[in-house]
Write a structure and sequence with these properties.
Number of strands of chain A: 14
Shape of chain B: globular
Strand content of chain B: 25-35%
Structural class of chain B: alpha/beta
Number of helices of chain A: 12
Structural class of chain A: alpha/beta
Distance between the termini of chain A: 35 Å
Number of helices of chain B: 8
Number of strands of chain B: 17
Shape of chain A: globular
CATH architecture of the largest domain in chain A: 3-Layer(aba) Sandwich
CATH topology of the largest domain in chain A: Aspartate Aminotransferase, domain 2
CATH topology of the largest domain in chain B: Rossmann fold
Largest sheet of chain B: 6 strands, antiparallel, barrel
CATH class of the largest domain in chain A: Alpha Beta
Radius of gyration of chain A: 21 Å
Largest sheet of chain A: 7 strands, mixed
CATH architecture of the largest domain in chain B: 3-Layer(aba) Sandwich
Strand content of chain A: 5-15%
Number of domains of chain A: 2
Oligomer: heterodimer
Order of helices and strands of chain B: EHEHHEHHEEEHEHHEEEEEEEEEE
Helix content of chain B: 25-40%
Distance between the termini of chain B: 45 Å
Amino acid sequence: MVYLDANASEPLRPEAREAALAAMVATGNPASVHQAGREVRRILESAREALATQFAARAQDVVFTSGATEANALAIHALSAGRTVLVGATEHDAVRAAAPNAITIPVLPDGLIDPQVLDDLLTQHPHALVCLMAANNETGVLHDITRAARVCNAHKALLHVDAAQAAVRARQDWLRLGASSIVVSAHKAGGLLGAGAVIFAPPFGEQVAPIIKGGGQERGWRGGTPAIPAIASMAAAFSVPYDAAKITGYRDDIEAFCVGLGAHVAGQGAPRLPNTLNIALPGVRADTQLISLDSAGIAVSAGSACSSGKIAASHVLLAMGFGELAAQAVRVSLPWNVSGSDIVAFKQAYETMAKRALHRGTVTLTQAQFAN
Amino acid sequence: MRIVVAMSGGVDSSVVAGLMHEAGHEVIGVTLQLYDHGAAVGRKGACCAGQDIHDAKRVADRLGFAHYVVDAEARFRASVMSEFADSYANGQTPVPCIACNQHLKFGDLLDMARDLGAEAMATGHYVRRVDGPNGAELHQAVDASRDQSWFLFATTRDQLEFCKFPLGDYASKADVRDVAARMGLAVAAKPDSQDICFVPSGSYADIVGKFRPDALQPGEIVAEDGTMLGTHQGIARYTVGQAKRLGIPADEHGDALVVRKIEPGTRRIVVGPRAAASRHVKLRDVNWLIDMPPEGLRAHVKLRAREIPQPALITGSGTGAALLLDNPALAAPGQAAVFYDGSRILGGGFITA
């Protein structure tokens, strides 16, 4: 199998595996006062300090959770008290569902927001909480957080940044740039499934109102015994350098090839993650593409899958004005360990699929379809 | 060969997938998600997938082939549910299973199978495909009590060439369940599905009312001379030929009255004696599975899902046809008239009047 679905979950990094194994064999609960408890707590607090260093924060402002979804919910729950929430149109469902009454910040066809529009919205809604993701999970488009933070600051608004996809692939010191909180995820970086964190800029950690109170873990901010092996793997995964140049080279190779076959790239003109490519094949349903590629041993994804596995049109691409093409796109996201032979296999399978559809008359390659 | 199997999550299509897999084919199981289960059961936060999708996935996982759920909600709503309601509102009695077979299973899904490079599509329908001198023929199932050929008349010859129906040769459903049990499938003892899939409560009028409230407006029941005999609670509740729910005593000869005509414009249900049935029936959207002889054709015609085919002369051209029945009958507009030569299906159409 050729695994090109890293934005769903990155393959485990060897460094993360080592850290997880070491944590797994340590017996004890970090809340215990005895020696065994202290040993496990040392692993937990070392991971916390590592994350603080990696993301230019203080250790006491790092809250571990079960993953990015919970981390986003916790941060938005904390920061939205008494504030209007503004959410980017292409945000992940984890953010959109955490702020169901939010005002949507529209995006341009390239997936970026217009800073002037944000400025106008904040003029109408001062002291708001703005939620903008660092990198979009479907298109890889990178929001200009520096600029957004400046606009937010001018209106005394808070900025929450979901950095789950960008934490290793396009890391910035978002908290120093002006974000009030950021969210990261272990398995999106090559760690284990089951851990994430929200990291606050001072003094916003003090606003946390726990969603799960439980046994008062994480200084009372998040109840429940932390998943130490997953947390240790996360800190280790974040410490491994990311070979952006290699990954970008492979991505650009695939991109040029698919465009040559008539595919349309989402967010092509915007800065993007090195590993992500969202390509629409006009006239071919996304699920047909996904099944076709899976049958050829290529793992990619599309749109947002319901728990049944049914693929709906992507809200991200709809927000970017893709119309019908929003239901005809797949996401290729290269993992850190992608190889040249993976790229060859993908191109072969994609070409077979596109040519079969072309032969069947499903695809009609006219420039008009790429008009947006 | 690569074969797409249309899987509903029931025992029949599960066995078909299992048989294809055992025969060494590369099986791609596909379940069409026809409607949002969570919304259908009206429970907030309920999963969009029902138990049937879960069951289909379990069969695929157990036997070891790929299974996918394909979104067909918009298409089902427009081509089946909405048409179903419109048909009732127009005084007809639709057959949604035929529309679903025609537009979704043998339309969209079959197209998808071709896009996937599959060489065939297999379904769990109880019909037989027989390869004759002029290509694939559609025949009734061996088990007459399970035969679904009436529901598949709209399958085109081109579509038929691409299809496999392994269950048509089984002598009984019990045999199919035995195969499921041998394969170790949890669905082996799953009850048969009932009635119309998107009407779980059994009250189809509720669904019609959601799309077309006008079809549930009260109106008059009248005799053929216009005499008012009673009232009704919506034309959607009646079918031509129906004797029940009229609330009218038998006429002076002791004959029960039946619905003769439904008039959507005036919302009138016209009743009369059953004996006054007609020999003439007109059809629309006719699909021929043979080359239609220009001089017309004598065949047996089945005007309802559960009845014995009756002899008739079929004439017509293009997508229209006219029936001259040997024995008069009450044909319900919206239902199918399917032509048989013995076990073979020659074609069929929808009754207009």
